[in-house]
Amino acid sequence: MTIILMVVIFTELAIQNYIGPKFSFGWYIFYVINYFLLLFFIVEIVIKTFAYGHFFFTELINTVDAAIVITSFVFHVLMIDTKILGLLRVLRLIKVISGMKKVVDEKRER
Q1: Which of 10, 82, 96, 105 has the most CB atoms around it within 10 Å of its CB?
Q2: What is the pTM of this model?
Q3: CA pseudo-torsion sign 22, 25, 29, 32
Q4: How far apart are CA 75 and CA 47, in angstroms?
């Protein structure tokens, strides 16, 4: 899932000017892919909130990630297209990369 997210985000940022006008086929493909990725991350946040309770939000990275995902989802559903969305997409990757780093560090400790 991480690789798919990275490919979609970097591809969309790289070819944003070449996708075509809004509501074209290329735009629609990226819209649907982004919608499902954001939906996946919202489900992940909800499940982790139920599993860990309020302790999930004691880590700053989880709180920032939840804010970024929810803001991105609202902007995406309402089709609000601003320059900040590109930054939000890149910030989502920070959470993913930090999670990958934790896994690697845990494996090194074993």
Answers
A1: 96
A2: 0.72
A3: positive
A4: 22
Q: Which of 102, 109, 108, 34 is nearest to 74 (CA)?
A: 34
Number of domains in the chain: 1
Full pLDDT tens readout for the chain, 110 residues: 666 766 777 776 676 666 666 777 777 887 888 888 889 889 989 999 999 998 989 988 888 888 888 888 898 888 887 777 777 777 777 777 777 777 788 888 87
User: What is the domain range of residue 68?
Assistant: 2-109
Rounded Cα–Cα distance for residues 93 and 79 (Å): 21
d(CA 99, CA 33): 22
Question: What are the backbone dihedrals phi and psi of residue 19, each rounded to the nearest 5 degrees, phi first?
Answer: -65, -35
